[in-house]
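#onboarding

Welcome to the new folks! Below is a worked example of what a typical request in this channel looks like: someone posts a single protein sequence, and someone else replies with the predicted structure as tokens. Don't worry about understanding the tokens yet, we'll cover that in week two.

Example request:
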Amino acid sequence: MGVMLQTFYWDCPSAEGYEGNWWSYLNSRLPEIARAGFTSLWLPPASKAAEWNSMGYDPYDYFDLGEFDQKGAKQTWFGAKADLLALIQSAHGLNLQVYADLVFNHNSGADAQERNPLTGQMRWTKFTPASGKFPRDWTCFHPCRYESWDGMNFGDMPDLCHRNPAVYSALIEHARWLLEDIGFDGYRFDMVKGYGGWMVRSIMEMWMLRNDAGLKPYGVGECWDSERTIGEWLDETNIWSDNAVGAFDFPLRWRLQSLCDDYGYSLRNLTKPGVLLWERPAQAVTFVENHDVARSSPIINDKLLAYAFILTHEGYPCIFWQDYFNYNLGQPGNQSGIEALVQVHERYAGGASRVLYVDDNLYVMQRTGVGKQPGLVLVLNNSANWSGASVKTQWSNTRLKPVDWRGRNDAGIPEEKWTDGSGNASLWAPPRGYAVYVPQ
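Example response:
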């Protein structure tokens, strides 16, 4: 399915000195991103927010991508509309898809207060955006005549009422505009527990038109909860849909954090149910870090163990910009880093995942292969010494070559192995590390 790159982290424009120029900076990095093997980009919210120096999760004018002088500047914190269009065009020229971040639960930065006649309260619900599109008043927010509430609020920001026909129509038009006119290829839906799954389904089922050809968007939802709750959201959202949306695998992320940071964490936990990866692999978007968890609960140690896991298993892996570039875990040109794992994912990681062996400190998994991807074997070692096991693979009399590996304080290279006539081979990984073997 490819590998997604989250192209931002919290306060990245100011942290790297690109206030108002993040789109152009991303554009300059696209050639190396494409060479590394990434297939898609998740961009931060592109619409004008309540304040100029905002990450965009407090939307004000959905149809201002950096061309109207309001909220402190003409451009957004990420750049001008022309810069965004140039970025998307360049990405498409390198066969990279681009996903928009849709924030449909709440708004901020209203221009005036209004009295809500249903409650008698004064609230900031009068929006008069300079684009002239999607003006809003109290009837567009909860509570209103259409609905009292629809899930959860975000701070004190007014919560959009999607059952209001004007709100529904404006958001549908916004989603259409982003794909057909601006050039996005799909969406990341923010905070989906705050509104009905039917809103997401309405967007995902739309036929978009680009260059006189129909297309359906890709979609992934942020449902920050247990596997059960995420599954219920997926069921609600995808029922009778011809274009199913996926979800970020938050439960897997917490297990991966324990794998990396908790001394003595049993690798048997990686095989247990309760994560999308095992329950719904086709809808699982796996990740190690994102802009939220990196601030609230970051992984501190041995993060490449987690990346080795998500880039060899099923699911749609998403790589965090800060890990790849700022923390130097990309390791371009080396056989020990995220770039090498991305290459492994794209060349070999096809077919179903089968756990061949697991105990507290050793985990061996095989991808069975499909099409041009012949499959692989991942050996994950949680002990302080080299460790391995004899496992029965699907390949008989086959050379298994290590193509990616890493160990803590150990630069040793795993040996090539041959399977016997029954497919058996003894496969090893470095201490507190991993090794990926592929058939030759």
